[in-house]
UniProtKB/TrEMBL annotation:
Pfam family, one: SBP_bac_8
Family, as annotated: Belongs to the bacterial solute-binding protein 1 family.
Gene Ontology cellular component annotations, sorted alphabetically: ATP-binding cassette (ABC) transporter complex, substrate-binding subunit-containing
Gene Ontology biological process terms from the UniProt entry: maltodextrin transmembrane transport; maltose transport
Single annotated GO MF: maltose binding
PANTHER family attached to this UniProt entry: MALTOSE-BINDING PERIPLASMIC PROTEIN, MALTOSE_MALTODEXTRIN-BINDING PERIPLASMIC PROTEIN
Phylogenetic classification of the source organism: Bacteria, Bacillati, Actinomycetota, Actinomycetes, Bifidobacteriales
Signal peptide as annotated in the record: 1-22
Protein name: Maltose ABC transporter, binding protein
Keywords, ordered alphabetically: Signal, Transport
């Protein structure tokens, strides 16, 4: 959705469109000074990653400048601090009343932020913006257990596949087994964000990740998949990516396939040159049945703090951080792929951005923001490490799979 941010809107209208009435507070907007001309003196505190505030790529500063120009009804004093999206929930929930008015967060933290009453519900206009800009998975990623929206996505957060197209054809890249038979494949099997990708049929707290009672449901044939993975790690063409070794192997030519996200695009492109390629995730075959690899997927989004002294302006700025204009600027200044569908032409020649978009649309599993997801990480990591260390074999695959499910507090599908 492309919003004309250059058209100044009255304060009362802004409240009706962007902030639920319950969050509006008094008409003095937190006690801010108001000049005779009608301009309001306000302070907005913002938490964002260091990279968005760096001297040579100060995206946040530019967005703030543009927002201020579009809203002459405010005389804004900006107070910026560095907090990454991954650390947002920890920092915000520690003391919501002292946290930033606006912050950027990873969507899998939504449940924690809601429990802490530290994230504001979007109003009518911002909700419309999010639904028009994004696909279903992105919208679901910022939808709370109450069905309301609580964040404005600006980029996807998932992983996909890079490969050397001089070694692997486009058709072969669609089949994990075909690649493993002829090329060197590295995969983060010991990483809990990746290992679940092989368990086709896994569901995490319902279709939209918001049903706590649904829990984690593991696929019925998971024991067979575990046995298959025991063969995968024993294959001489396979190597485990410990977080750094995979990219290093791509760079020195000892690997032809890497599973990672857009953060690796620049390095992989430099390493592979003209042979650089990326795509959404492949299928693999277990006992004659075709399975689809699926990556965990989330978004990074902007939110406002309902405890802010100026919640009306905070809500407006959070919506603007995820606007078409701001997402376009984010890509131009920092190569952050947008979620906004109207900007698809912007990334036409960006191989990694296209692979990410295709993955989100076709081969991704929404990473739930419920606190119950905390039960996934350690058991999944333990399981993955046991595979890599060859402690899991074809003979004990069924028992080890059942142990994993039990440790995670999940259940096996009937």
């Amino acid at each position: 959705m492309k919003i004309d941010w250059k058209k100044a809107i009255g304060l009362t209208a802004a409240v009706a469109m962007l902030v639920p009435l319950a969050a509006c507070g008094g008409s003095d907007n937190g006690g801010s000074d108001k000049k005779a001309s009608g301009t309001q003196n306000i302070t907005l505190s913002v938490w964002a990653p260091q990279e968005d505030q760096a001297k040579n790529t100060n995206w946040l500063g530019k967005v703030e400048e543009n927002f201020a120009k579009a809203h002459p009804e405010y005389n804004i004093t900006w107070k910026n601090d560095v907090v990454s999206e991954g650390d947002a929930s920890k920092q915000v929930s520690t003391d919501p009343s002292a946290a930033a008015d606006v912050y950027m967060f990873a969507s899998d933290q939504l449940g924690v932020l809601m429990d802490a009453k530290a994230i504001g519900q979007l109003g009518t206009d911002a909700e419309k913006q999010v639904k028009e800009q994004n696909g279903d998975l992105e919208v679901d990623s910022v939808t709370g257990t109450d069905g309301k929206l609580y964040g404005v996505p600006y980029t996807d957060n998932t992983w996909f596949m890079y490969y050397n197209k001089s070694k692997i054809t486009e058709d072969e890249a669609k089949d994990f087994d075909a690649m493993l038979a002829k090329a060197k494949v590295t995969f983060p099997m010991s990483n809990s964000w990746y290992v679940g990708g092989f368990f086709d049929g896994l569901t995490l707290f319902g279709e939209k990740g918001t049903e706590e009672k649904a829990g984690m449901v593991f696929p019925k044939d998971g024991a067979d998949i575990t046995s298959y993975l025991a063969d995968v790690v024993a294959n001489p063409n396979f190597s485990n990516d410990d977080g750094a070794s995979g990219l290093a192997a791509i760079k020195d030519g000892s690997a032809d396939v890497l599973f990672s996200g857009t953060w690796s695009a620049k390095d992989v492109k430099e390493a592979l040159g003209d042979n650089y390629a990326a795509t959404s995730l492949p299928t693999f075959t277990v006992n004659g049945q075709k399975k689809q690899m699926k990556s965990f997927a989330a978004t990074k989004a902007a939110a406002y703090n309902p405890n802010a002294k100026n919640p009306k302006a905070a809500a407006q700025f959070a919506a603007y951080l995820g606007s078409t204009e701001a997402q376009k600027l984010h890509y131009e200044m920092r190569a952050i792929p947008p979620t906004d569908k109207s900007l698809s032409d912007l990334t036409t020649d960006d191989i990694a951005a296209k692979a990410q978009a295709d993955t989100m649309a076709n081969t991704a599993l929404l990473q739930s923001g419920l606190s119950g997801m905390n039960d996934w990480w350690t058991p999944a990591e333990t399981f993955g490490k046991a595979l890599v260390n060859k402690e899991i074999t074809k003979d004990n695959a069924a028992a080890k799979y059942q142990d994993w499910v039990k440790q995670a507090g999940g259940k096996i599908a009937e």
